[in-house]
């Protein structure tokens, strides 16, 4: 067999991805005996062929199912759990149910009673016994993962496509914050590897599953649902419009899918494989997210945003630098960006009664430029750098509207701020 045939076979059959998945899972849970975990992953991949239960397990399953029925007939769950000598198993099975969740299709129907359905199935009991989900998922050290992932050579994937489709993908990627920092060559590699896929009212990503694909929406609409801690039904978190990407978290952190994504009507998406994402997009995206996350966590109103809203904000901002005396914003100009001050200082000057007066000073953690974007009026003041270097995170108007104004709490805060000016 030639090298290229070997590579094609290994990549085409997803063998590398499966081996990656096994190693990542073993590094996370570090079981003393790795074989049951390996078998469990392979069984799940092999179409969930569930092995038979032993007689003891059959009895346990029946007793759990009876108890569940009793709970549903009105007995108090807490009392029943605390008096149960097998409470550890019940907890584990409940936990594993979280990962299985209802299809998002059901989630719009609040009258559905699927939550009362039997959670104690053969599969969940076997999973609990194998202890696959019992071990808390700890993160794998960056070095350990780095050493492991560096061992493989990156092989470019080229999925044949017309120039028209290539151009279409390119313009979508340009809109998509996650790909902002790629140069032309890297962009070309990503475009070659992308595959057009279509979904109609189907679940594209299922919370709790393992994932190997990132998607960029080209047409149609998708909804994101998540089963939040302590809740019985998934909540709708956001919708996606063309030009937005999802499915990156599982690839960035080697974690199970954090939420479910469903196509609403017909959707066309461009799918990117894990290998290309890891080699071309991951580093820049991860660095960017890590660089800004601490900053956004420390700024007053961003603490009202959830973790993922802040993550999207990190993707969208671009760092810009000025030196002392530079003008960032000019009074009277139309507004096109919003700024966060990362380091250095700045002042706002305004023409009042024919004289230029200093009206505000800015320090790290402050922000400016929101007024013109919210009111569509010209810039109300000039902003100038007063420190040797001024470093700002710049958010363009489109992202400002999508990421900040779509969040009612943040929008209200900004409106209050400008009305006090
Ligand atoms: N609040 C959220 N928490 C987690 N994932 C989210 C959230 N909102 C949207 N998502 C997206 O849903 C995707 C589900 O698959 P991933 O975990 O790979 O990546 C996730 C994100 O792209």
Automatic annotation (TrEMBL):
Cyclic nucleotide-binding domain segment(s): 178-298, 301-404
Binding site for 3',5'-cyclic AMP 2: 370, 379
PROSITE patterns with a match to the protein in the record: CNMP_BINDING_1 (PS00888), CNMP_BINDING_2 (PS00889), CNMP_BINDING_3 (PS50042)
Stored InterPro entries: cAMP-dep_PK_reg_su-like (IPR050503), cAMP_dep_PK_reg_su (IPR012198), cNMP-bd_CS (IPR018488), cNMP-bd_dom (IPR000595), cNMP-bd_dom_sf (IPR018490), RmlC-like_jellyroll (IPR014710)
Matches recorded under Pfam families: cNMP_binding
Signal peptide: none
SUPFAM superfamilies: cAMP-binding domain-like
Compositional bias annotation for Basic and acidic residues: 94-104
GO-annotated cellular components: cAMP-dependent protein kinase complex; cytosol
Swiss-Prot/TrEMBL GO biological process terms: cellular response to stress
Key words of the record: cAMP, cAMP-binding, Nucleotide-binding, Phosphoprotein, Repeat
Domain of life of the source: Eukaryota
Molecular functions (GO terms): cAMP binding; cAMP-dependent protein kinase inhibitor activity; protein kinase A catalytic subunit binding
Annotated residues for binding of 3',5'-cyclic AMP 1: 248, 257
Record keyword 4Fe-4S present: no
UniProt-annotated stretches for the region Disordered: 93-122
PANTHER family: CAMP-DEPENDENT PROTEIN KINASE REGULATORY CHAIN (PTHR11635), CAMP-DEPENDENT PROTEIN KINASE TYPE I REGULATORY SUBUNIT-RELATED (PTHR11635:SF152)
Similarity remark: Belongs to the cAMP-dependent kinase regulatory chain family.
Record's protein name: cAMP-dependent protein kinase regulatory subunit
Organism: Euplotes crassus
Lineage of origin: Eukaryota, Sar, Alveolata, Ciliophora, Intramacronucleata
């Amino acid at each position: 067999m030639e090298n290229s045939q070997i590579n094609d076979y290994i990549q085409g059959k997803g063998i590398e991805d499966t081996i990656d998945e096994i190693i990542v899972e073993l590094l996370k849970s570090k079981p003393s005996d790795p074989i049951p975990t390996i078998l469990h992953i392979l069984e799940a991949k092999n179409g969930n062929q569930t092995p038979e239960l032993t007689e003891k397990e059959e009895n346990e399953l029946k007793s759990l199912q009876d108890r569940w029925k009793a709970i549903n007939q009105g007995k108090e769950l807490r009392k029943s759990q605390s008096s149960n000598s097998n409470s550890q198993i019940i907890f584990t099975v409940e936990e594993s149910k979280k990962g299985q969740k209802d299809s998002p299709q059901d989630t719009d129907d609040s009258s559905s009673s699927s939550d009362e359905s039997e959670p104690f199935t053969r599969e969940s009991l076997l999973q609990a016994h194998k202890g696959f989900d019992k071990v808390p998922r700890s993160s794998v050290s960056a070095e350990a993962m780095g050493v492991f992932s560096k061992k493989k050579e990156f092989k470019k994937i080229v999925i044949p496509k017309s120039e028209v489709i290539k151009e279409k993908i390119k313009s979508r990627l340009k809109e998509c914050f996650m790909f902002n920092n790629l140069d032309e060559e890297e962009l070309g590699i990503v475009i070659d590897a992308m595959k057009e896929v279509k979904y109609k009212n189907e679940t594209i990503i299922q919370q709790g599953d393992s994932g190997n694909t990132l998607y960029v929406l080209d047409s149609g609409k998708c909804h994101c649902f998540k089963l939040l801690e302590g809740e019985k039904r998934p909540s709708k978190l956001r919708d996606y419009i063309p030009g937005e990407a999802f499915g990156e978290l599982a690839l960035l952190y080697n974690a199970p899918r954090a939420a479910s994504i469903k196509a609403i009507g017909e959707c066309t998406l461009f799918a990117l494989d894990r290998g290309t994402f890891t080699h071309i997009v991951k580093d820049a995206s991860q660095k960017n997210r890590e660089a800004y996350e601490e900053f956004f966590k420390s700024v007053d109103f961003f603490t009202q945003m959830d973790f993922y809203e802040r993550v999207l904000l990190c993707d969208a901002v671009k760092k810009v630098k000025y030196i002392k005396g530079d003008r960032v914003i000019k009074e009277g100009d139309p507004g096109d960006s919003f700024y966060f001050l990362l380091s250095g200082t700045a002042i706002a000057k305004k023409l009042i009664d024919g004289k230029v007066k200093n009206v505000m000073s800015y320090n790290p953690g402050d922000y400016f430029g929101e007024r013109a974007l919210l009111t569509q009026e010209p810039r109300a003041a000039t902003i100038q750098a007063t420190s040797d270097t001024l470093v700002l995170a710049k958010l363009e108007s489109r992202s400002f509207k999508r990421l900040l104004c779509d969040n009612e709490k943040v929008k209200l805060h900004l409106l209050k701020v400008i009305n006090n000016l």
